[in-house]
Amino acid sequence: MTKDELRLALSEINLPKFRADQVFSWLHQKGVSSFDEMTNISKDLRQALSKKFEIRSCAIETKRVSKEDGTIKYLFRLFDGEYIESVLMKYKYGYSLCVSTQVGCRMGCKFCASTLGGVIRDLSASEILSQIHVAQNDENVRVSHVVLMGMGEPFDNFENVKRFLFLANSEDALGLSMRNISLSTCGIVPKIYELMDMNLQLTLSVSLHAPNDKIRSALMPINKKYNVSELIKACRDYVNKTSRRISFEYSMISGVNDSDECAEELSKLLKGMLCHVNLIPVNNVRENNFVKSNDKQLKKFVSILEKNSVNVTVRRTLGKDIEASCGQLRKKHIASEGRDES
């Protein structure tokens, strides 16, 4: 609930505005997961609240810490026994958390482990928020940047994602700067326009992964509904309306999308757009046979983009020793329980 919604809900059980503000503070500034933790509220009132309301937060099921760079991979258990993943990363500017927006994913991208079992359900705004609170409280750190690039397609759960964005950005909640939030999509074109009309100062990150329809359709089923031309037009419209730079994610897969020709084609596709290309050496997923591009080809791809005045970087790989790419830990854990998603 927003603060106004909480005030209204508590007024219906004859509680004054200041009580709602206390509860809101406990939830959104301290990140508590039960009413019993709200120590400046009487025991009787805490019991009354727990009978009428519930706090759906995440619980740490498994935690892996990288010995290489300190990246932390969380497997969170939800109230209904489902699992999601989050990754806490430390950078020079502070801590960034990659959060999930769905249990599983329906988009079917061939290189992604999150989508192997399809989508189970959407996460509520509170479940998305809780990933931040639990990570902060567990490590006693302040998360300053959030990327919605974990399990799920944010635009496939956009109503809950919008509520999350509002709450995360609220000064009396997490107080996250919208400029420090990145929202990723595989390319649901109508939702790009909807986000454009909201005129938020967040970073839109588009999973592109191919410069043409033939390769992209083979990798990403969404391209059969919204092709490369439609997607790039939407991205150009978005940039023109918001003046915000778009980030294009591009997983480098050996022999699939990493040729010199692909680099030249990508350069022409993005020519003149306010954008940045983030090249990602593809993660190894047991269920597919994709192999990341070798260093020589990766460097050549970068040089071609730079020659054509396209802003490009290679993403620093974090948490390699803890399977930090989303979907892998959840799938392994579910298998250990004897469950089958397929």
Instruction: Supply the helix-strand structural class.
Output: alpha/beta
Distance between the termini: 34 Å
**Rounded radius of gyration (Å):** 21 Å
Spans where pLDDT lies below 50 across 5 or more residues: none
Number of strands: 12
Main pleated sheet? 10 strands, mixed
Strand order of the largest sheet: 1-2-3-4-7-8-9-10-11-12
Give a brief rundown of this model.
This protein has helices at 3-11, 17-28, 43-52, 125-139, 158-169, 189-198, 213-219, 228-242, 260-270, 295-307, 328-336, and strands at residues 59-65, 72-77, 83-91, 94-98, 102-104, 119-122, 143-148, 181-185, 203-207, 246-252, 275-281, 312-314. The protein has 342 residues and is an alpha/beta fold.
Q: What descriptive keywords fit this protein?
A:
342 residues; two-stranded antiparallel ribbon; 12 strands; 10-stranded mixed beta sheet; alpha/beta
Write structural notes for this entry.
It is built from 11 helices and 12 strands. The protein has helices at residues 3-11, 17-28, 43-52, 125-139, 158-169, 189-198, 213-219, 228-242, 260-270, 295-307, 328-336; strands at residues 59-65, 72-77, 83-91, 94-98, 102-104, 119-122, 143-148, 181-185, 203-207, 246-252, 275-281, 312-314. Strand 10 (246-252), helix 9 (260-270) and strand 11 form a beta-alpha-beta unit. The longest helix has 15 residues, at 125-139. The protein is elongated and about 70 Å long.
Topology:
Blueprint (H helix, E strand, L loop, with lengths): L2 H9 L5 H12 L14 H10 L6 E7 L6 E6 L5 E9 L2 E5 L3 E3 L14 E4 L2 H15 L3 E6 L9 H12 L11 E5 L3 H10 L4 E5 L5 H7 L8 H15 L3 E7 L7 H11 L4 E7 L13 H13 L4 E3 L13 H9 L6
Parallel strand pairs: 4-7, 7-8, 8-9, 9-10, 10-11, 11-12
Antiparallel strand pairs: 1-2, 2-3, 3-4, 5-6
Helix pairs in contact: 1-2, 4-5, 6-8, 9-10
